[in-house]
Write a structure and sequence with these properties.
174 residues; alpha+beta; five-stranded mixed beta sheet; 4 helices; 25% strand
Length: 174
């Protein structure tokens, strides 16, 4: 009898966890509050990444990249070569300069910093390749290492290989 009750409990727990796993990620309503830290170095690193994202990455102002990125920038995304020049060449092809927004355009879940690492978690809309009419939300992350000079020296993200030269969810990006 205990065995049957335990099995029923585990089944119920499994169903409950599965139901909770289906909750879509939710963006924070206040990006600027995420830039605060009692540690001035962490606050500075968060602001650096926030401004880089808005001005260079989303805003397309590749001429501003040297203010934010080390020339020897290391890229861990399998689709983009390392080096600031490679970043400018790759991203600059698809991001033409536009007015700089006051906030990051993609929905931001969190901006966190620890030591020399800043992580930005965002909500990404993606089309299911097996069922193209099914669009779902997932959590994306970009992680940056800031060097001693205060420049972005390294980047990681959750990107698989791109399809037809575009990241998953690119059709939904601003």
């Amino acid at each position: 009898m205990i065995h049957r009750n335990s099995l029923s409990g585990l089944l119920l727990l499994g169903l409950t966890l599965a139901a909770h796993a289906q909750a879509p990620p939710v963006a924070s309503p206040d990006q600027l509050s995420m830039l605060r830290s009692e540690d001035p170095g962490l606050a500075r690193n968060k602001r650096l990444v926030f401004d880089f994202w808005r001005i260079v990455f989303e805003g397309g102002h590749m001429d501003e990249a040297p203010r934010y990125m080390e020339a020897s920038y290391i890229q861990h995304n399998p689709n983009v070569k390392s080096g600031r020049a490679a970043f400018i060449a790759t991203i600059g092809k698809v991001r033409r300069p536009q007015p700089i927004a006051a906030r990051i355009k993609v929905p931001v879940i969190a901006i966190t910093a620890e030591g020399d690492i800043v992580t930005v978690s965002t909500v990404r809309k993606v089309r299911d390749p097996r069922h193209p009419r099914h669009i779902y939300l997932m959590t994306w992350f970009d992680m940056f290492r800031i060097d001693r000079r205060g420049l972005i020296a390294e980047h990681w993200d959750s990107s698989p290989l791109w399809v037809d030269g575009r990241p998953p969810g690119a059709e939904f990006l601003p």
